[in-house]
Amino acid sequence: MSSDPQRQLLRHAVAALAYRAGKALRGAPESFAGFEAGQNVKSPARILAHMGDLFDWALARSQGRREWHDSAPLAWEREIERFFGALKAFDDYLGSDAVVQVSAEKLMQAPIADALTHTGQIAMMRRLSGSKIRGESYYEAEIVTGRVGFEQAAPKREFD
Prior knowledge:
The protein contains 4 helices and 2 strands; from the N terminus they run H-H-H-H-E-E.
């Protein structure tokens, strides 16, 4: 297991993403996948498929491969599983002693930052669709490095 501080910080960022994405996705009805927020706005399913692609790509780049796939969205629950599976595969690689072929800065500025932005878009779309989620103090959240699945700790402080 790698003890490199940069890799540990990346892993914590991935865990924070998993926590925030889990909150934005948990309890969303199947119909939310196709929600139309406006003309030329990607659906939540398309955004989530892109997020899964980002972490497939991050893993490939970390392993020294140049691969990008533009995946068509799966059924909502399967797309959620695919995203968290891609996140876990990437986190597992960061947690290993395998050589990461790209800089931590590039991984932070591209796939991780992009996915955090998209998580915010999904959360906003939840509100717009009438499937509101509560605000939360993420500073107080129990975010644990390596915990990158759909299931996360219960919120410590939510608000409306």
